[in-house]
Amino acid sequence: MRTKPDQDRPNPVDVFEEGEPKPEPKPSVLGWRSYVDGILVTGDSWDSMCNRVDKPLDVCRRKVAYLGHEVSSAGLEANPKELDAIANIPFPIKLKAMQSFPGSLNYYSRCI
């Protein structure tokens, strides 16, 4: 599509182009490059390319473990493994252990 000379610009300018995207001089990041409606994934072999495809698909996960919590569309939840560890922790005997115990409880206070 070309703009006409009387449309906002003194000279005709290409607005859209058809065909293959022109290679960019910079290397791709993590072996993939995004275009308007897709992602190009490159690799040295079929297996390495398949392994790289998994990274962009992580966005589609329903639940993600992050910093000891599980993040989902429902919000922030405690990781069940971490809660089991806190529930089964022995009562602190030494002063240093007693000082760190409330910190552990405070970290998960929203979920307890």
Automatic annotation (TrEMBL):
One of its GO terms (molecular function) is RNA-directed DNA polymerase activity. It comes from the Eukaryota. Residues 1-29 are annotated as: Disordered. Keywords: Nucleotidyltransferase, RNA-directed DNA polymerase, Transferase. Residues 1-11 have a biased composition (Basic and acidic residues). InterPro entries: DNA/RNA_pol_sf, Viral_Replic_Matur_Polypro. This is Reverse transcriptase.
